[in-house]
Amino acid sequence: MKFASVCVLGMGYIGLPTACTFASHGLRVTGVDVNPRILDVLRNGEVHIEEPGLKSVVQEAFRSGHLRVGSAPVPADAFIIAVPTPINADKTADLSFVVSAAESIVPHMRPGNLIVLESTSPPRTTVDIVRPILQRSGLRAGQDFYLAYSPERVLPGQILHELVENARVIGGIDTASAEAGKELYSVFVRGEVVLTDATTAEMVKLMENTYRDVNIALANEFARLAEHFGVDVWQAISAANRHPRVKILKPGPGVGGHCISVDPWFLVEAAPELAGLVAKARSVNDEQPRYVVDLLRRELGSLAQRRIAVLGLTYKPDVDDVRESPAIEVVQLLAQEGAQLTAFDPLAPQVALSAERVDSLERAVSRAEVVLLLVPHQALREIDPAQLASLTPARVAFDCHSVWDRTTWARAGFRVRTLGAPSAA
Ligand code: SAJ
To answer: What is the pTM (predicted TM-score) of this model?
Structure first.
C-alpha cells in the first residue's frame, strides 16, 4: 500500500469519522486537533459530536491501536485537512484554520507525500493558498508531493454510511495527484470515484450546496407570491411537481445549518459581479425569518406582550443541530418585538435564547395565545390538535411547514395560518 499512514487535521464532523474509517481499514492514523478538550474527550473513549454509531467506531479505532490523537501533526504518508471554514461577519470565508493546518504540516513533509484538502473552500484555495504554503517545505507540488482537493458531502445523521457509499470527487493539481487521492480513498470508498482537477472539485462542492440554496429561495419566493395572489403555495407546488421535469423544494422559515447557508457566499466572495443570482438567493433565504415575523404581525397586530409558544429550534427537522438555525433567529426577532416566548424543542441542546426554554409541549403552550411551529420534528408534526386544545388557551396556530392539517385543526377549534397560504385558509 502506497499510503500506510495518514495524519488527519481537524477532529470535527468530518475529520473524526474519516480518521476512524481509515483506521478501521488498517491504516495507521493520527488525528490532530488544536483543542485539548476534544483530545481529552476522545482519549476517554467519549465523543464530542452527536452522530449515530460514531462513539463505537472511535472506541474500536483506539482499541485496535490504529488510531492515536495529538495536538500536532506527525510524519505520515498522507495528510488530510478537515478543519472548519467559517464565515466572517462580512460574508467572506475565514481560511485561518486551513492556513494554520497547512503550515503545521510543512515541517513534517517528505517526498512522496499526498496532501488532501477536504474543507469547503472558495475556488482556487488549493492551488493559490495551500500549495504555496506547502512548498515552504522546499518540496515542489506535482514533482515531490501530490496535492488534491476532495470535498466532504456527507449528511449529518448518516455520516459513517455516506462516507463509504457516496460518490467521491477527487481533484488533483495534476493527474498524478488525483490518482494518488483515488488510491488513498479507495481503501474504504465504495461509491464511484470521480477524478478531476482541484479547482473543479472545489466548484463542485459549492455548486451542490448553492443549487439547493437557490432552489429553496425560489420556493420561498413562490410562497410570498402565492400569499400575494391568494393562492396556497403548497397545493401549487404539489401540482407543479407533477410535471416530469419540475421539482420545486419546500418553503419554510429560512435556511440554516453550517453548509447551505454559508457555502454560496464563497462563490459570491470570489466573483461578486458574476454571482448575482447566488447572492440574491442568499438574501431571500436570510430574509425569511423576518418574513415569518411580519406574517405574525399582519395576522395578530402588535406582537408586544403576546404570549407565543415556539415549537422547534434546530436548523432542520429531526436533528439536534442549532447552527445558523432560522428558528432561533425568529425567536430573537420576536423577542425584539416584545413578545413573551416559551420555547420547546425535543432535540435541540441548551442554547442561549431570548425566550424561556421549557422541557415539554404542555409547559410551552399552557399560557400561550398563539402556537408557532418553526421546525417540523416528527413529534411536533404528529401533535393531536384536539389534545392540544385541552392543554392551551391558544386558538391560533402558525404552521411554517404546512404539516398540520387545517381541517382537522379547525375542527379542534384552531385557526391555522400556514406560511405560503392565504389568510382565510
Ligand atoms: N430546507 C428548506 N426547504 C427544503 C429543504 C431544506 O427550507 O426543501 C432548509 C432546511 O430546513 C435547513 C436547510 O434548508 O434549514 C439545509 O438543510 P438540507 O437538508 O438541505 O441540507 P444540510 O445543510 O443538512 O446538508 C447539506 C447537503 N447538501 C445537499 O443536499 C446539496 C449535504 O449533502 C452536504 O454534505 C452538507 O450540506 C454539507 O456538509 O455541505
So the answer is: 0.93
Q: Please indicate whether residue 210, judged by its CB atom, sits closer than 6 Å to ligand 1.
A: no
For residue 377, give the DSSP letter: -
Report CA Rg, the chain. 24
The residue from 7, 20, 259, 400 that is catalytic is 259
- Cα 39 to middle of ligand 1, angstroms: 29
> Is the CB–ligand 1 distance for residue 176 below 6 Å?
no
Q: Any idea which residue has 500506510 for its cell?
A: 4
Residue 36 buriedness (CB in 10 A; 0-12 / 13-18 / 19+): exposed
pLDDT of 149-165, one tens digit each? 999 999 888 999 999 99
14 pocket-lining for ligand 1 (C-beta < 6 Å): no
| 259 included as an active-site residue | yes
The SS3 of residue 181 is helix
- The pLDDT of residue 130: 98
> Closest residue (by CA) to atom 21 of ligand 1?
260
Dihedral angle of Cα 79, 83, 88, 93, to the nearest 10 degrees: 40
- Ligand 1 centroid – CA 398 distance (Å): 23
Which residue owns the Cα nearest ligand 1 atom 10?
A: 316
Q: What integer best gives the mean pLDDT of the chain?
A: 96
- Answer whether 212 contacts ligand 1 (Cβ < 6 A): yes
CB burial readout 352-385, b (16+ within 10 A) else e: ebebebbeebeebbbebbbbbbbbbbebbeebeb
For ligand 1, whether the C-beta of 209 sits within 6 Å is yes
| Span 351-399, pLDDT tens digits | 999 899 999 999 999 999 999 999 999 999 999 999 999 999 999 999 9
Q: Domains of the chain, with CATH numbers?
A: 5-191 (3.40.50.720), 220-418 (3.40.50.720)
**Other beta carbons less than 10 A from residue 167's beta carbon:** 11
pLDDT at 424 over 70: no
119, 97 Cβ separation under 8 angstroms? yes
**Atom number, ligand 1, closest to the C-alpha of residue 254:** 7
Q: Tell me the H-state helices in 106-190.
A: 131-134, 159-165, 175-185
